Amino acid sequence: MSDLSLPVLDFSQLDGDAAAVARFQDELRAATHDVGFFYLTGTGIPAGLEQRLHRVARDFFALPEADKLAIENVTSPHFRGYTRVGGERTQGRVDWREQIDIGPERAAVTDPDAPDYARLIGPNLWPEAQPELREVTDAWVAHLSEVARRLLRAWAEALGARASYFEDHFGEAQTLLKIVRYPGKDDPTPAQGVGAHKDSGALTLLWVEPGKGGLQVERDGAWVDAPPVPGAFVVNIGELLEYATDGYLIATNHRVVSPRYPDDRISVPFFFNPALDARFPLIELPADLAAQARGVTRDPSNPIHAVHGENALKSRLRAHPDVAERWHADLLATRA
After folding, report:
1. DSSP H/E element including 215
2. Residue 47 clears pLDDT 50, i.e. is over it
3. Which residue, 55, 69, 85, is CA-closest to 128?
């Protein structure tokens, strides 16, 4: 047992014998049925890669303002690039953070008959003053993608499905890497680093700067701290896995409280999601698990869609109204 607010799972058990694999699957199922969040150790991330990621993140935010604004996300219809402090919103309120968003490097879709969510496909914006950023983030995404794929196989078997269940319906992954800096605030009450929300996709692996707290998870109606654990990622599931299991697995509200000035905090969430056009059919759960399924959360202001692209587009339009107004005013008119 852990005295932390979230369960701790050891990913290296998947390299053990059949008993170790079964134990990990049981713990994984329980953690994401009861909480939706857990710490994951033993992922085999090279220490040197973790240190390089931390350094390039710090170096990026230390760039002159002009270099960062040269790749500001308002210049990208695909919601890529740099977001200045206060440029993102959650539940309509301003988030106190700056960040760079990095997705799969692809050409923009020009087909006028493509679905609306195809507008999220396109090239990244890279800072000319920091060429190393792309090399390090490519390596980070490649490593975490393999971790995510093995987690999905473990989830599938833990839920009574074939190991390939999720990947059979996943298509080419639509990943998203955010490198985030939360500046310190000196307000008398805690400030919103990022507001309460659930992730819209499949799963998230979060790296947090060592020794820097701020993440909080909602448990039993109360907010509990989820401080960083050395060598561990914080993992949570998104609304797609809640949808696919009819609420047996649960996507959980979480938020970040700003650090106290003059401190700040680096955070790097990695979102591993299916192709934008992927649709997850409901898993036929074993009878004992199906009896514990709670149904998908019903929120008229935040519907959960079966197609990932609809969830992703909904989230981006809401989070970045300046980008939406500049590039996607037609969608705002039809989705008001």
Report:
1. strand 215-219
2. yes
3. 69
